[in-house]
Design goal:
Shape: elongated
Number of strands: 0
Order of helices and strands: HH
Strand content: under 5%
Structural class: mainly alpha
Low-confidence stretches: none
Number of helices: 2
Largest sheet: none
Mean pLDDT: 91
Helix content: over 70%
Length: 70
């Protein structure tokens, strides 16, 4: 196997992992800063819903891949 391909895979994995850690951190900061009940602006609601759907899609794909490979 091409050693450069391994470097690319390692970089991609590290990049995705770093992005997920940042998402986790920021989600906590945002959630902690919200007071209950709070009138959340519509654009914020929409963006949170989109991010949630995208992450759910990734998680669903990973779960189906585990079942397919098993």
């Amino acid at each position: 196997q091409d050693p450069d391909a391994l470097d690319d895979e390692d970089y991609e994995w590290k990049s995705v992992k770093a992005h997920l850690q940042k998402i986790h951190h920021l989600a906590g900061v945002i959630a902690d800063s919200m007071e209950e009940p709070e009138d959340v602006e519509e654009w914020i609601q929409e963006k949170v819903a989109v991010v949630s759907a995208m992450l759910h899609s990734i998680q669903h794909y990973q779960e189906s891949e585990k079942v397919r490979v098993s």
